[in-house]
Write a structure and sequence with these properties.
This protein has about 160 residues and is α+β, with helices and mostly antiparallel strands. Helices cover about 15% and strands about 45% of the residues. A hairpin with a 3-residue loop joins strand 3 and strand 4. It starts with a helix and ends in an 8-residue tail after the last strand.
Length: about 160
């Protein structure tokens, strides 16, 4: 019987939110499912307006494309910080510039500051990777219903 009690207590603890993170402090962003297992969220960056990111918890970096970078630079919302060697899903390696995005809004009101993003060529799909998601951790990725819940969002300034 003690083993069953231990399992029940552990199951209840896993369901509780992390200390200091109540339901009121979470920002929930709906995701759109496209294809079998890809989920997208709406975002906004000063200089680009509304954009779409594929949520990719397996990507170390958030990625943007060259077209988006040009808009961000024009709006003074991106600073060059260096390069990295990116390993693609097919195993190939590419040198990619990395920029710091000063202001990124996920959904309607989850503000993230100074997000590092690798830049892919042309108008490729943009990924919301761990370099952004860790800033709002702890976070929950749910597929039913599709939504991303973030704990540490900044506020929109008026």
């Amino acid at each position: 019987m003690p083993r069953l009690t231990f399992r029940l207590v552990m199951a209840l603890l896993v369901m509780l939110p992390p200390c200091g993170v109540g339901a009121a402090s979470l920002k929930t962003i709906p995701m759109n499912q496209k294809q079998l297992a890809t989920y997208y969220i709406q975002a906004n960056m000063h200089g680009t307006g509304s954009v779409e990111f594929m949520v990719d918890t397996g990507a170390g970096y958030t990625t943007i494309n060259e077209d988006t970078l040009a808009l961000l630079k024009r709006a003074d919302n991106a600073d060059y910080i260096g390069e990295l060697t990116g390993v693609m899903a097919d195993g190939s390696q590419h040198r990619l510039p990395v920029y710091r995005i000063r202001h990124l809004v996920l959904g309607k009101d989850c503000v993230l500051s100074n997000v590092e993003a690798a830049v892919f060529p042309h108008n490729t799909r943009m990924l919301l990777g761990l370099s952004a998601l860790e800033k709002a951790a702890p976070f929950t990725f749910s597929t039913n219903p599709p939504r991303l819940s973030l704990s540490n969002c900044g506020a929109l300034s008026s």
